[in-house]
Amino acid sequence: MASNRGPIKGEVVTRFAPSPTGFLHIGGARTALFNWLFSRHYGGKSLLRIEDTDRKRSTQEAIDAILDGLSWLGLEYDEEPFFQSQRADRHAEVAQQLLASGHAYRCYATPEELEEMRAQQRAAKQPMRYDGRWRDRDPSEAPEGASFAVRLKTPTEGETSIDDLVQGRVTVRNEEIDDYIILRADGTPTYMLAAVVDDHDMGCTHIIRGDDHLNNAFRQLPIYHAMNAIEGGWDDPTYAHIPLIHGNDGAKLSKRHGALGVDAYRDEMGILPEALFNYLLRLGWGHGDKEEFTREEAIELFSLDGVGKSPSRFDIKKLENFNGHYMREADDTRLAEIVASRLGAEANVDLLAKAMPVMKTRAKTIDELVDGSRFLFATRPLQMTEKAAKLLTDEGRQYLFAVSQRLKSENNWTIEALEASTKALAEDLELGFGKLAQPMRAALTGTTTSPGIFDVLVLLGRDEALARIDAQAVAPSRD
């Protein structure tokens, strides 16, 4: 039997189905993006399902983080989120239909019996599969009152093929799929059953997910086929299994590679949502040599034909480069407000907005913008970095005295006028301009890196700039 690929007909419905047991990690965010873009490209629906059936590990904090991260990336959904935990009765109802129709059966095997079975399989170096011991037995053979799980009766002959939109045709022998549990002994549904029932009830036409779920497709299809035989209308979805993301060294992605939650990229690293959106889009998908896409272009051009079969490699430096590009294009007031929120009460949004044109040319992250902006709101005496302090030698302080005297006579406090005056002073003193600029930067910012020194003078304003220079200047000795 085969799940046919074929042309896309009717409304496309995709879903993103995260488990709220932790943050929205980078791989999940890319899966969400690909689902969203695919449905938007075809004018379909994009749905969100929170798979919160693991009540011990699922938390409201994780749910909030997932919803917040998706919203920050601009992935809006066409309906309110579905919560899998609220649908347990529906899952159990389908399990009972499968049981009543003979597509599932009661398994009375005890945990001890199952462990003994697995031990024997390990010893014989056999695949670890349920051996079907209750598949054809009459339930009357079980001890009275014994608990049981419900197992799906999977096909034992032939093979199943899937025409995956990314992986191509994949075929598995049916004998490799064992009769797995769909309803536990306590009456709760398993993931395999719940996911299929929810995908069907939500009308999902395309299941786009990581290729670590490819084996699950072959386990889930028998439920579709059984329910289709029972009541009809349970058509196979179309599958697309996306290769996972690896680190830059080719190893499985981990925290050391940058496998953080979306909130960490925003809050700790200072990445803009449009930069992460574009980077995730290009992480395993391409359209010719084009690197940068607007949201509208991404929707127009996205197709699963552009998804590669090999794992993509996460490169934090490339993400930062993307972010630097988008920061340079970003509205100055927007950036100023983001930076001000991180600097706190000391920050002045108007001054930051004025500084952004020169500040953002040097930065790749919001964090760098924040650090680079601190000098604007520093109070005297400025704290000096070690490198800056080394520039304020006796000679450097005397140069600052000369700079102060020259700039105090400058009535036109503009970049052009200040540059002309300072460079003229350097010529008068027969010095290279750097001999003046380096101690000036240290005195004005407390650091050795900043925007252009004349930009700094103008941003600080005449009074504050001169006061900072005078705080470090020393008049030359008259000896």
Automatic annotation (TrEMBL):
GO cellular component annotations of the record: cytosol
Residue window of motif 'HIGH' region: 18-28
Top EC class for this record: ligase
Ranges where the Glutamyl/glutaminyl-tRNA synthetase class Ib catalytic domain occurs: 11-320
GO annotation, biological process: glutamyl-tRNA aminoacylation
Enzyme Commission identifier(s): 6.1.1.17
Motif ('KMSKS' region): 252-256
Catalytic activity: tRNA(Glu) + L-glutamate + ATP = L-glutamyl-tRNA(Glu) + AMP + diphosphate
CDD domains with a match to the protein in the record: GluRS_core
Transmembrane stretches, start-end: none
Domain called Aminoacyl-tRNA synthetase class I anticodon-binding: residue spans: 335-471
Keyword Ubl conjugation appears in the UniProt entry: no
Main location: cytoplasm
Pfam families given in the database record: Anticodon_2, tRNA-synt_1c
Protein name according to UniProt: Glutamate--tRNA ligase
Organism lineage: Bacteria, Pseudomonadati, Pseudomonadota, Alphaproteobacteria, Sphingomonadales
